[in-house]
Design goal:
- It contains 15 helices and 13 strands.
- By secondary structure, it is of the alpha/beta class.
- It folds into two domains: 168 residues, Glycogen Phosphorylase B (Rossmann fold, 3-Layer(aba) Sandwich); 174 residues, Rossmann fold (3-Layer(aba) Sandwich).
- The strands form two sheets. Strands 3-2-1-4-5-6-7 form a seven-stranded parallel β-sheet, sandwiched between helices. A six-stranded parallel β-sheet has the order 10-9-8-11-12-13, sandwiched between helices.
- This is Glycosyltransferase involved in cell wall biosynthesis.
- Pfam families: Glyco_transf_4, Glycos_transf_1.
- GO terms for molecular function: glycosyltransferase activity.
- Keywords: Transferase.
């Protein structure tokens, strides 16, 4: 099959990682995979460096013109983001090709329901990365295939990890960390208050916040200053090759208010880091059955207590690590994710006599 993947995001977050991982697996299975992406974006550069054909544009106009001129050359067009399903939906009558959309969020639609559901209905396959992400479209009457995100081990750059540890003075300290943009939905202020509560009990740790800037960044920095946590809560910003840094962590913590799945938690599972998390959306699914400690959204006291427990209870750490590692290998393997998509792609192509294959 000829497969066009669409992702027009600027940065490098979970959706972009999943897009590239899907492309790699589809290529490994023998299919011709092309990317339509934002010019200058991290995804476009990484896909190009990996040998993929990449068509990149600086604006939506260029993207839509590409679809109108060349979209019919593909068997399947897969929108990996909410904005790209909009453009595919608008071009669908002209394209006459199967359209796939993967939902990676778990928000309720609210006032945007009517407009959003219209474009969702244009997808020939609506996929969601978790039951939490599938809940809203199902409530709107759509049929949804749940295809969880995948995670793959990356080669370890020891020098990078050592350089980072030296830069932030991690030697001799227990390392707590999160990997999340500084946005309201990730709720960094709850993390900061939890660290203040933990600091009142002990002084053997440092908390590293890995993640890009966002709409809660200033509030988070102000709160760290207000609570006097400058030596215990450190902002490291966006980090390339973040997988190397999981090897430095004693506990991974996530305080999201909304989360469709949480690929950063899957990273922690894969690199044997015990997890403390809020029970938002898909986090409740992946951390079930003793794969981590769950707390109520916004409850900084519970988060602090769970971190302390995970640091001090060696049998608990060991059991959660073992269960999480076995789970991520079984349910979130890249080949498993790709095969599920390819089965659906083939079904759509067989049903669509206009496809070139």
């Amino acid at each position: 099959m000829r497969i066009l993947q669409l992702n027009f995001e600027k940065g490098w977050r979970g959706g972009e990682r999943q897009t590239l991982l899907s492309m790699q697996e589809f290529r490994r299975a023998g299919h011709d995979v092309v990317l339509l992406a934002r010019r200058g974006g991290e995804l476009a550069q990484r896909a190009h460096d990996d040998g993929f054909a990449v068509h990149s544009y600086a604006s939506v106009v260029g993207l839509c013109l590409f679809l109108l001129r060349r979209g019919r050359r593909f068997d399947v067009l897969h929108a990996q983001t909410a904005n790209t399903i909009t453009w595919l939906a608008l071009c669908k009558k002209w394209l006459r090709r199967p359209i796939v959309f993967t939902r990676r969020t778990a928000f309720d639609l609210g006032e945007q329901a009517r407009k959003t559901v219209w474009k969702w209905r244009q997808a020939d396959l609506f996929a969601a990365i978790s039951e939490a992400a599938a809940a809203e479209p199902r409530r709107m009457g759509l049929e949804v295939a749940v295809i969880p995100s995948a995670i793959a081990v990356q080669p370890f750059d020891l020098a990078h990890a050592q350089e980072f540890a030296a830069q932030f003075g991690l030697a001799g300290r227990r390392v707590l960390a999160t990997a999340a943009a500084l946005t309201r939905e990730k709720d960094p202020c709850t993390l900061i208050r939890a660290v203040r509560g933990l600091r009142e009990q002990r002084d053997d740790f440092v908390f590293i916040h890995l993640g890009a800037e966002g709409d809660a960044g200033q509030a988070a920095r102000d709160l760290v200053q207000e609570l006097g946590l400058q030596q215990h809560y450190l902002f490291a910003g966006f980090q390339g090759r973040v997988e190397d840094l999981y090897r430095l962590m004693d506990v991974f913590v996530l305080s999201s208010r909304h989360e469709a799945l949480g690929t950063s938690v899957l990273d922690a599972f894969l690199y044997s880091v015990p997890v403390v998390s809020t029970n938002a959306g898909g986090l409740k699914e992946i951390l079930a059955d003793g794969r981590g400690l769950l707390c109520e959204v916004g409850d900084h006291r519970a988060v602090a207590a769970a971190i302390a427990r995970m640091l001090d209870d060696a049998p608990l750490r060991s059991s959660t690590i073992d269960r999480a590692y076995a789970y991520v290998l079984q349910h979130h393997h890249p080949a498993r994710m790709a095969q599920r998509y390819l089965i659906e792609y083939q079904r759509l192509v067989v049903k669509s006599p206009t496809c070139p294959t």
